[in-house]
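Researcher: Structure for this, please.
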Amino acid sequence: MSWFERNTHRWDEWSLADLLAAKGDQRVSLVVPARNEAATVGDVVTRVREALVETVAILDEIVVVDSDSTDDTYAVATDAGAVVHRAAEIRPDLGTRPGKGEAMWKSLFVTRGDLIVFMDADLLDWDTHFVPGLLGPLLTRPEVSLVKGFYERPGADGPFEGGRVTELVARPLLALLFPPLTGLVQPLAGEWAVRRSLFASLSVPSGYAVELAALVDTWRAEGLDAIAQVDLGRRAHRHQALRDLGAMATQILTAGWARSSHSHHADEIALTQFGPGVAPQVHAVPVVERPPAAPLLAAR
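Model: Predicted structure, token format:
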């Protein structure tokens, strides 16, 4: 039986009652990294809180980590019932970096879950079953340490096609450098879950490469069967501008390069793009990584 057959699940394989029984005294944290998501973060927090904290207590806490928002993300998430932290204010002695990965790395210092579920804040077409679906393999299969979600994306050419960076960057990169991981349907999906002990042991890129890096490093540390994936149904979110995706792709390529037989030591990559009048514009893309958090957590 292939890895795909052994480790691919659907969200409705487990009932909430079964997951609650399997949870026992383990604690579960939902972490929502957010930057300028005032329009959607309130709905994400409210629906999850009502369904999975107040109705069925599968979650022990909902934490939003605000990554330098300039809108009302902090206030909206707080009003919706989340515990909200500004990334820059978590462990200020460690400094602060821009990016999604930074918010996720910093979440280790303000959460207490043995299991951590990550969800993006910009969801438009989704349901609360995403959370128990991701928890299913972690709660019922002790050999699994990381679970990736995948889903149908409305408007895509194929039902399970990934986004532009997935199809043009991540898939070719995995095929070239990390072929055992090519069975992941959507390797860059923002909905995933992980054992706290594993995530704290990983080096974490501060930007958008956090998902790819976690997959590669988990495979190398614990083997392919420590990774599972779950079909979550349907998901939609806001799309980023094509030029912004260039920076995302640069971060992902850098993380892959650093984990290949090559090495990379820069904190920034100079990405040249072209604007009106064919004028070159150089954008410094941060590619720094945070070290494993475990020693820092132990020193508190």
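Researcher: Any notable elements?
Model: The mean pLDDT is 92. Residues 271 and 283 are 5 Å apart (CA to CA).
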